[in-house]
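Listing S7. Sequence submitted for prediction.
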Amino acid sequence: MSSDRGLGPNAGLIGEPGGLERITTPALVLRLDRFERNLARMREFLTLSGLSIRPHSKTHKCSQIARRQVAAGALGVCTATLREAEAMVAAGIAGVLITSPVVGAAKLERLARLNNEAEGLMVVADHPDNVAALADAARTAGAALTVLVDTDIGMQRTGVPSVEAAVALAALIGESDGLRFGGLQGYSGMVQHIEDYAKRAEAYGAHLDRLAATAAALSDAGTAPAIVTGGGTGTIAIDAARRVIDEHQAGSFIFLDVEYNLVEIVEGQNAAPFATALTVRNSVVSANAEGFVTIDGGFKCFATDGPPPGLHAGAPAGATYAYFGDEHGRIAFTREGETLPLGAQVELVTPHCDPTVNLHDHIHAVRGEVIEEIWRIDARGVL
């Protein structure tokens, strides 16, 4: 089967009845009914809480999904890299926020050029030297660039280290020819997967206290942030209750994964308020051993920074997955005589959706057993 318009080996199955059962694997599969329900649920939740959302596209790296998020009410999208931002702007997405500092002459030149083309582009900074470099690049390119202060609220990955440093950096941005001060970012990735709601709320509460103190100090200094942005899928309910953040960056809610299915996202609700929409479809490539079969999905198919993938469909109850090499995985059975025939297909829940998506080229958008569309993961790449 040949590729069609760069859509990969399954392009010829688009719209075909039962096409999912004939899909060439490994293949990322997105169940459209669940994905659309997740978008609707988030919109309802945010409407009730009064929050806006600028969802993080590092989850999907796909401009087709970004378009659907904007259509569902998002202000734009966040990106983790300049490469992602370039792909989103090229696809016509407005309101892109780059949530990690952009450093280095070549990248800054590209950022400034992108700012000339983009509508509502924003970037974060956490160091005076970066602010100076951003200003130089923006002046050379001839268009003012909006910069947010990235503040460390407890993770110590990026961000200014203190309230005082945040106030000073905001003032520097405001005084810099070529820049506009846009607001404040405070993100804590380290709390997102704390499974127990109360423990997560306690840990994150201290981070939000620091973010609130920083926002208040900026206001007192006459540089009130127009937006305060941050948060993730694991803290959406806490952020709605605390209202320190007004623009939310949740991303994984559209897909969910093994990690987030273990998290009590809403207090007292063991089941996630969002549905597992993304899976990886794999095929049995060897069935000669007793007690297990080998499938075509290993380290190069799934993220390996968390738990193993979870079996979703196609295997007997109780069967488990284990990595079996770069290209292979093992499906082990619990009862004697159980097996799967050569070529049988199984679906697995991604262990961590973001880095799993980054290993693939296409998302197969499926309704029932029909592949309705295939979307390129067009923001992949390191920059």
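Caption to Listing S7: primary sequence and predicted structure tokens for the chain studied. The domain at 11-29+273-376 is CATH 2.40.37.20 (Lyase, Ornithine Decarboxylase; Chain A, domain 1). The chain has a mean pLDDT of 96.
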